[in-house]
Amino acid sequence: MIPRHQTILFIVLLAASAIMGVLLWNQLRRAHDRLLRGEDSAPTQAPLVAPAEQATLMVANDADNTVQPRILTLPLPQNPEARARAVLGKLLDLYAAPESTHSVPGGASSIAQVFLIPIADAAGRGTPDGSQLAVVNLAGTFVAGHPSGLETESLTVLSICSTLSANLPRVTEVRFLVDGQPRASLAGHADLTRTYLTSEETVAAPGVRP
Fold it and tell me: Considering the entire predicted model, what is its pTM?
């Protein structure tokens, strides 16, 4: 017979899991609603009038399966969502270049939108540190042209999450959409149904070193 205190603990944990699931669903629905309304404050490329600032791009390298920082000076908007899209656009421009260390076609236009949503606690309030969930909406053409393979897909996901964290410290979680809709995987391997924590090394697949 299961002890009474274990039964109570199980019920409490089950209720907490259900609440967090509802909160996450509401966050994703808000991002999707904004997408449908056309609320896109982030241009495809940072405006030329934006002040130049240093940005840290976490660039993947297929030769040794690592992600290494590269500091560049870029025109970066002040709006956080526009800034997020600008740094990710530059990252994917690097991948689309002929000399890329992680060759993936598409470039900056592959980032359709980036939404930043405050992470709510169990009571529905924002966290004390202002943590945010970044919802990255990828273009379908980028996903269609992405090379298939566990390591190459994982490096792409890891570099996107790490670049967001390096430039927007409040971003602690990342979700992905493709053309505004959930998708099972990037190109058959990297899981796009989960929420990625920018602090965890499990963003990378086994054998991929962050």
Answer: 0.75
